[in-house]
Amino acid sequence: MSISAVKEEVVAVLPTTVTPDEKKISKEVTAIEFQAESIIIQDEADYQQAAEFGRTIKQKAAEVVEFFKPMKDSAYKAHKEICDREKMMLTPLKNAENILKKTMSAYALEQERKRKALEEEMRRKAEEEANRKIEEAIALEEQGKIEEAEAAMLDAQITDSVARGATLVVEKPKAEGVSVSKDWEIVSINDAIVPLKVAGVTIRPVDEKAVMRLIRASKGTVSIPGVVYKETAKMSFRR
User: Is 41 helix (H, G, I), strand (E, B) or coil?
Assistant: First the structure.
């Protein structure tokens, strides 16, 4: 799949050379700067003249702003139009990315669900085998076969230990340029029963960001009254 693009050059209509009016204003403001450096105030009259000169500076600054306003307005308008057109093109791509992330996330979560189900099935079978060996050990002991009973009980203990720690390692879905991390999202919040604090963190009035920080910090193990959340797969793409 490929996307071809035609490069479009957009140029704001701005003066490319300094106009006579701009040169005139530039000379005037430079002269004002030099004049300000030469001012010495020794009495009240000098002070009044300096104040008057200050008003002249402000007036000239207003003239400069007014002079450049049409150019700034033109540049702003061009920039805004470009940004709007850029957004118009990026929006479908962002929507497509979100759709794809949801689809891939659903697949990754389903694979994890299957792994957990298989792991639980293995654990259940191991527990059943451990219980069977315990019953066998009891039966052997009742028959007076002490050594065989002890051996069967040892097997039962080993099997039970394996059952408790059974973990199925399955390679997660991988694709170049894609990274997947575990995350969680809030499904619902019942404000009426959410506590004031959880693990020392104030979350009332209900602060969803604070709630999410708690969930992530606990790696999805925290239980918060009134808050229902679920595990998700966070997808990100690299170019």
Answer: coil
> At residue 74, what is the residue type?
S
Q: What φ, ψ does residue 5 adopt, rounded to 5°? A: -135, 145
CB 139 within 8 A of CB 152: no
The rounded distance, in Å, linking the Cα atoms of 95 and 143 is 72
Residues 5-33 pLDDT 10s: 444 554 545 556 788 999 999 999 999 99
Asked if 238 contacts 187 with a C-beta cutoff of 8 angstroms, the reply is no
237 beta partners: 178
Q: What is the pLDDT of residues 86-126, one digit of tens each?
A: 999 999 999 999 999 889 888 888 888 888 888 888 888 88
Q: What pLDDT is recorded for position 105?
A: 87
pLDDT at 196: 85
Three-state helix/strand/coil letters over 54-77? HHHHHHHHHHHHHHHHHHHHHHHH
| Residues near 71 by beta carbon (within 8 Å), at least 6 away in sequence | 14, 15
Q: What pairs with residue 231 in β-bridges?
A: 184
Element (H, E) at 201: strand 201-202
Does residue 196 or residue 85 have the better pLDDT?
A: 85
Residue 223 φ then ψ, to 5°: -115, 120
pTM over cut 0.85: no
The label of the residue with tokens 């959410």 reads 194
Which residues neighbour 210 within 8 Å (Cβ) at sequence distance 6 or greater?
201, 202, 203
